[in-house]
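User: I'll paste a sequence; please echo it back and then give the predicted structure.

Assistant: Echoing your sequence first, then the prediction.
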Amino acid sequence: MLSKLIVWGKDRSDAIKRMARALDEYIVLGLKTNLGFLNRLMEEKDFISGKLDTGFIDKHKKLLKTPKTSLEISSLAGVITLHAAADSQTSQRDPRFTPWKYIARRSSVSRNSMF
């Protein structure tokens, strides 16, 4: 799968800032991506200053390594996700509006009492 993200700016610095923001907001689910690498690249001083050549990645191999996430942070993220999912399910249930009431109202509003 390929995806293209294009940004512009009044100069290189502005374009890099816009790209960093766009990458932070870019979401791809279910696939491995190089978004982490690209985010780290936007913060690399040699990239920002334009010191690029064909050996850039070899000279900056640290950009390829994903920082380890601690178990505590991963666990907390899981708990927050579960809590948010539970909240969204309970907030969607309003006892005043059941499927039966919806069907009855729709039927009574319909000209032929059929929908």
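Residues 40 and 63 are 6 Å apart (CA to CA). The helical segments are 12-25, 35-43, 45-48, 56-59, 71-92, 99-109.
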